[in-house]
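Help needed: design a sequence for this.
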């Protein structure tokens, strides 16, 4: 893919994301799902009303800024409600999320390019991310999960940028990375898993280097044969010609990691709390964290008895239990959009309005399969090393694709495995930080297929892409809350557990 077509493609992805997120943004003149909390909390900062929040405050600050700006513009002021504590338009408490969410596909594409320097891979990663349902839904309402993802991904991207730079430029990007990771944790505590992923890949890079160094030292005869010195240059084995910034991870020592990806995120996280603690003086910094932890521990078990949409972590990858953020019914399209009250009795509704927090099914399923394929690559490399360690240590360094596999799999596991021990009720949106790495995995797989010399593999890559696009179009009515007949609604609810 040429630079020109890559620029055109990424611009198209961005404008598609922007259009889908802003179209009909104020259609439901109410508080949808957790807007009851986050839109209200954002407005509370503007009216100086103290309140307790069960999450760190950064996303509510941003929503509050959006409300202030949205309330001072001369358009989109037709519909108003007072549900968030002031007379506001739905557009005012949603637009900044829509804008922020539109950039997530671009950040995903930037990470894909940074770890591979392949424009086709980056374009596919951005396109597939733009074609996911739960990211679209979360971006269209005053919710907070997109901020965990975008700040965490920015932390990852800045880290990769820093690894390609030297001296002061590297320091600048590593500081930015620490800020990104701190901001992700300051949105929700599970934002820390992005930082955990960075530590996972850093530790893995050091383990690979130490293993290589051990076998190089042990097999000097092989080294002499390949004309390779056993000394090191700039902290890297000379054999390892750098092809991806991930191979430069061992240029960061433990003190740099602790400072840039330890102290700086902690400092940013702490500073972000200051405005909230100035508003609500009931709790100090330590006490408010104790209260938040107490709140989450009291949420109960992970079952339908606690909440009908509770979904344990192992239900997320196959998307067996998505959730409805908004569900209302009407007798005809001519009726005003229903915003309050229970739906009509079963069998009487002619029109259904449903906003479903649900991924693009084929994207999620194909992406999960691609992630397992990457796991297979890693396992094969490990088995190959165990069988022929001398050959491994003296051959060319690990390929870029193996590093990509490690980066994606380790970040996926870092964002998923901590939920295994969580006993409180959790929901499918908690999977968003992990699933984004599977989008990168399917983009990598499709890119490999399309670039293949084999016609059947190119056909497979193109077919997967079209299936994902068609799937997105098919389910888009329940992402945007478009009116559906009962039959059209049932056509999209393939499993009872989806309803």
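Sure. Designed sequence:
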């Amino acid at each position: 893919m040429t630079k020109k077509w890559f620029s055109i493609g990424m611009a198209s992805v961005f404008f598609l994301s922007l259009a889908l997120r802003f179209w009909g943004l104020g259609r439901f003149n109410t508080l949808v799902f957790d807007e009851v909390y986050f839109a209200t909390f954002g407005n509370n900062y503007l009216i100086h009303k103290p309140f307790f929040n069960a999450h760190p405050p950064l996303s509510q600050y941003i929503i509050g800024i959006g409300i202030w700006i949205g309330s001072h513009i001369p358009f989109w002021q037709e519909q108003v409600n007072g549900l968030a504590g002031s007379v506001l338009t739905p557009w005012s408490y949603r637009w900044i999320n829509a804008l922020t969410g539109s950039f997530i596909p671009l950040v995903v594409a930037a990470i894909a390019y940074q770890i591979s320097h392949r424009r086709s891979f980056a374009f596919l990663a951005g396109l597939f991310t733009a074609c996911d349902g739960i990211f679209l839904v979360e971006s269209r309402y005053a919710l907070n999960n997109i901020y965990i993802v975008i700040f965490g991904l920015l932390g990852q991207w800045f880290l990769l940028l820093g690894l390609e730079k030297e001296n002061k430029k590297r320091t600048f990007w590593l500081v930015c990375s620490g800020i990104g990771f701190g901001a992700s944790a300051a949105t929700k505590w599970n934002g820390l898993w992005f930082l955990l992923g960075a530590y996972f890949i850093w530790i893995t890079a050091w383990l690979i280097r130490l293993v290589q160094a051990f076998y190089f030292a042990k097999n000097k005869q092989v080294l002499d044969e390949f004309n390779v010195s056993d000394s090191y240059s700039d902290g890297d084995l000379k054999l390892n010609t750098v092809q991806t910034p991930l191979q430069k991870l061992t240029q960061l020592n433990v003190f740099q990691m602790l400072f840039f990806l330890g102290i700086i995120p902690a400092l940013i996280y702490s500073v972000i709390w200051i405005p909230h603690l100035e508003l609500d003086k009931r709790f100090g910094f330590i006490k408010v964290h104790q209260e938040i932890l107490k709140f989450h521990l009291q949420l109960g078990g992970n079952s339908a008895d606690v909440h009908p949409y509770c979904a344990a972590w192992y239900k997320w990858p196959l998307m067996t239990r998505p959730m409805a953020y908004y569900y209302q019914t009407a007798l005809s399209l001519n009726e005003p959009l229903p915003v309050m009250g229970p739906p009509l009795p079963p069998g009487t509704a002619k029109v259904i309005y449903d906003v479903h927090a649900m991924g693009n099914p084929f994207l999620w399923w194909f992406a999960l399969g691609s992630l397992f394929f990457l796991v297979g690559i890693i396992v094969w490399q490990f088995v190959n090393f165990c069988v022929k360690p001398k050959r491994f240590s003296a051959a060319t360094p690990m390929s870029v694709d193996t590093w990509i596999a490690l980066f994606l799999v380790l970040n996926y596991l870092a964002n998923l495995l901590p939920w295994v021990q969580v006993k409180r009720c959790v929901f499918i949106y908690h999977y968003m930080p992990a699933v984004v790495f599977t989008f990168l995995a399917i983009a990598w797989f499709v890119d490999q297929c399309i670039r293949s010399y084999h016609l059947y593999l190119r056909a497979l890559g193109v077919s997967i892409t079209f299936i994902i696009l068609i799937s997105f179009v098919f389910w888009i009515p329940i992402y945007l809350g478009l009116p559906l007949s009962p039959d059209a609604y049932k056509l999209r609810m393939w499993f009872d557990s989806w309803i």
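The chain is about 60% helix and 5% strand.
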